[in-house]
Design a protein that fits this description.
Shape: elongated
Mean pLDDT: 76
Number of helices: 10
Helix content: 55-70%
Distance between the termini: 109 Å
Number of strands: 2
Oligomer: single chain
Number of domains: 2
Radius of gyration: 37 Å
Low-confidence stretches: 1-21
Strand order of the largest sheet: 1-2
């Protein structure tokens, strides 16, 4: 037996078998398996360094997490993480058929409860997912260069008509301010 195999047998560490990669052990250790499982099953809830710490890498968890996710240093761990992620994606992943079916179930439940708004929203979401609705936004910018001569004249007449009082200065509601005197102050009080 190789020395490595003897050490593994003596420590009784459960392992995950993967084919031999040149210069890398052919099996995952218990801590590597635990790290990968913590990382994948708690994705978004704990960081990679927290997963490494919880897996037993107490001294330098950030460095251990980095090395364990590096395919050059730990290809077996990276492959195992990939396999776990594929399992999770298969179990909880989204597909068009599953999405449409789930929206239909939500719509039917809402309709049965008389929640018409929720039922309508679920049906609209199904339609969007199915490509029946197209959100379209048009941004139009005006440019004087794109207008014909008649359009320019028409637009200028509209502007003159809309702002006639300002342009001609025909406003009659201009008040003159009275100077502050003791008499005027008494009138205000």
């Amino acid at each position: 037996m190789h020395i490595r195999m003897i050490l593994i047998c003596l420590t009784c560490t459960p392992t995950y078998d993967i084919s031999q990669v040149m210069g890398v052990p052919a099996k995952l250790t218990e801590r590597q398996i635990k790290f990968a499982e913590l990382l994948v099953y708690n994705e978004g809830r704990i960081s990679a360094s927290e997963a490494a710490y919880q897996a037993g890498y107490k001294t330098r968890p950030r460095q251990a997490a980095s090395e364990l996710r590096n395919p050059k240093k730990s290809p077996l761990v990276v492959r195992y993480i990939g396999e776990l992620r594929a399992e999770v994606q298969e179990k909880y992943g989204i597909s068009f058929e599953r999405h449409i079916t789930e929206l239909a179930k939500i719509r039917d439940d809402a309709r049965a409860k008389g929640a018409w708004s929720a039922a309508t929203n679920a049906e609209v979401a199904r339609g969007k997912a199915g490509g029946l609705y197209v959100d379209q936004k048009l941004i139009m910018t005006g440019n004087i260069d794109n207008l014909s001569e008649q359009e320019l004249e028409s637009r200028m007449k509209d502007i003159l008509k809309d702002h006639k009082d300002i342009i001609e200065g025909t406003a009659t509601d201009i008040l003159q301010e009275e100077p502050e005197t003791e008499e005027n102050i008494k009138k205000l009080n």
